[in-house]
Amino acid sequence: MRRKNSPFLIPLIVVAVITLILTVILLIPDGGGEKTPEGKPPEKNDPVTEIKVPEVTFKSSLEEYEKYMNAKDEKYLVLVNKEHIVGVDFEPADRIDVKDTPKNGITLERTAAKALEAMFAEMRANGFNNVFVTSAYRSYDYQKDTYNGWVNYEMQSITSDARKVLGDGYIYEKYTSKGKSGLDRTDAERVADSYSARPGTSEHQTGLCVDLMTSTMSALDESFADYPVYDWLLENAWKFGFVLRFPEDKTEITGYSFEPWHYRFVGREHAYKMYSRGVCLEEYVKSLK
Ligand SMILES: [Zn+2]
Predict the structure, then answer these.
(1) pTM
(2) 196-218 tens-digit pLDDT
(3) In angstroms, what CA-CA distances link 164 with 82, 161, 192?
(4) Is residue 97, in this structure, part of any structural domain at all?
C-alpha cells in the first residue's frame, strides 16, 4: 500500500530545490578569468597593479627556484618584434646552458634558464616526459647568416614562395619572359621577409625565450598545439614566469603567425597579469604606459 505523503512535504521539497539551485548558481566559477563585478573582462585602462597574483602550489619541490620564477626586473619586459628592433650589440650578459635539451650550446639568460628548469621539473611531475628545448638564445650573427642564407636561396630560383609573395604576372614580366631564373636581391629579400626574421627583429636574441618540441614531432610546427602538454602550458606557464608569446588570436598585433611552441620569460607577476587579462606582450607593455 502507498504511504500517504505529509501535506508539508511538497512545499518543503520545492523550497529545498530552489535553495539548491541558488547555491549552485552562486558557487559556479566565472571561468577563471579576471572579472569586474559586472562580469565583464577588465577594461584596458584598469590599473594592472590591482590584479593580485594567487598563491601557487607545485607537485615537485621548487622552493629554490622561487626567486627566479618570481623575478621582477623590468628588463624581462623588453619588447622585440618587427617594429622594435634590437641592436647588433644587444646580448644578454649572463647566459647559462639550458638543461632540458638534447643539443649542445643551447643557452638562456640565467634567470630565465633557472625558471625554465622549474617548469620542466613540474612538467615531468605531471607526466609530460617527452618535451625538450629545440632553440633558445640566438645571436645577431646567427640570425644574419640564417636570413642571408634564405635571401641567397631566393636569388637562385623562382620558388613557390616567390610566386605567392610577388605574383605570377610580376615574375613573368620581370624574370621568366627575359630568361632569368632567379630573383634580384631586393625581390629576394621581400620573399625571405615573409618567412624569416631579419637580424635584430627576433626575440630569440634576448635570451629570454625558448622553442619547445615533443619527441614525436618531426618538425617545429603547429602540431605542438595538439599535444596535452600545450593545454597544460596554457594554464600553468605563468606560474614559472612564462607566457605564450604568439597566440592564435593575436597575430594582427604581434605580426607573427600562431606559434604554440614559443614561450617567453617575463617573470610570474607580469605573466599572471597577461594570462588573466588575455593580452599579449605588445598589449601589456602598452597598458603599462
Ligand atoms: Zn621561437
Answers:
(1) 0.77
(2) 888 999 999 999 999 999 999 99
(3) 21, 5, 12
(4) yes
